[in-house]
């Protein structure tokens, strides 16, 4: 049996969270999804602070990260991750509605692993998330934890 790895989902839109969980459920990946509603919570999770100070050690297989979130946006989170020796190798996939070229360029300049624009069509959205989940939670080998 394949051991599922944790997926961290940073998304402030409840409908997008629901759609993402539904898409991951189709391949039994949803039971290992941790949802945070903004960038501050994402960093708390990754740094074992705030409500996550006692969580089990280990990095998620991937962070699915929205750009436009309150308190700390996705680009700020990506910048903080890539500047932190302990988590800089964490795979990050931007899962966002932003098609703005400056956002795309900035994310790749910061070392994002993939940039996926959320499809408007429900079936396309589900298919995109399903493929992301299968690759990162099952197929991809994780970087070592330091």
Percentage beta strand: 5-15%
CATH fold naming of the domain at 1-59: Rossmann fold
How do the strands of the widest beta sheet line up side by side? 2-1-3-4-5
Distance separating the two termini: 27 Å
- The level-1 CATH class of the domain at 1-59: Alpha Beta
Structural class: alpha/beta
Q: How many strands?
A: 5
What's the average pLDDT?
84
Q: What best-fitting shape do the alpha-carbon axes yield?
A: globular
Helical amount among residues, as a percent range?
Answer: 25-40%
> SSE string, helix = H, strand = E?
EHEHEHEHEH
Biggest sheet descriptor: 5 strands, parallel
* C-alpha-based Rg, rounded: 14 Å
How many H/I helices? 5
Please mark out the parts with pLDDT under 50 across 5 or more consecutive residues, or reply none: none
The CATH architecture of the domain at 1-59 comes to 3-Layer(aba) Sandwich
Describe the protein in words.
The chain has a domain at 1-59: Rossmann fold (3-Layer(aba) Sandwich). Helix 3 links the parallel strand 3 (62-65) and strand 4 (92-96). With 146 residues, the protein is of the alpha/beta class. It has a five-stranded parallel beta sheet with strand order 2-1-3-4-5, sandwiched between helices. The model has no long low-confidence stretch (mean pLDDT 84). Helix content is 39%, strand content 14%. The chain has helices at 14-25, 39-47, 74-82, 101-109, 122-139; strands at residues 7-10, 33-36, 62-65, 92-96, 114-117. Helix 1 (14-25) packs across helix 5 (122-139).
